[in-house]
Specification:
Elements (H helix, E strand, L loop, with lengths): L2 E16 L5 H4 L1 H11 L10 E6 L2 E10 L5 E5 L2 E7 L4 H21 L4 E14 L4 H6 L17 E7 L4 E9 L7 E9 L6 H18 L2 E2 L14
Parallel strand pairs: 1-10
Antiparallel strand pairs: 1-5, 1-6, 2-3, 3-4, 4-5, 6-9, 7-8, 8-9
Amino acid sequence: MVRTLTINQNQLSYFARLDKPALQVLGDRQAIVAGLFEVFSDYNLELSSFYFEGIANNPTSIGVNVSLGEFGIYKLKADRIELVAENFGSDITAEKFPYVLHSGSEWVRSTLSASFKSHAFAYVCHGKLSEGHSEEFLLGLPNKQLLDYGRSLGSGFIENWVDDEIGGKVKLWVDHSTVLDGGLYIQLFATVDSDAVDYFKVLNRGLKVFYEGLQAIGIEVVREVPFDDEGDKK
């Protein structure tokens, strides 16, 4: 039986570590804001879209945040970059995600002379099944119960693999939601431990794994094709 998953909460996030600290972030705030204002000019920015954070005696906490509206919050710090979009109902947000990352990283590379040590991508969501409870669904999966301390509620599953297509590692996790009663929690996590990364390829690969992985266990998610099939940069 195929069940439909209705996603009620979601988050798409990115975290990258720089190979060496970009010390300009700690001091030249005016130049940083001017540069990012230009880079993200397509997102209707105002000066109020920027805000600083951090404390002087903790350099790793100091950074510049840029609110890109529905497309998330971009965070630039001396040792890392983050982008987080939460509870988006439109596929346009997911579609724009790799474009934001590509534009931001190109500016960081060229202006701050920075390179990257690693990249991490995550999509997490909580959703309701069209039929049944998460316990009934997870108990129906072919998993062996390793511990017998009481009545099993269903263990879900975690799959980890090396993915040659993205040159990194991928994890797919399906379990009970701790937010929605009787709902499912799904996490897709990918890491690339190198300087170079193709944001479009990783996001397209992630979509393919997400939909095909859920279909393999009898779950269908309505899709509006947030990326074109070839992952072309628009």
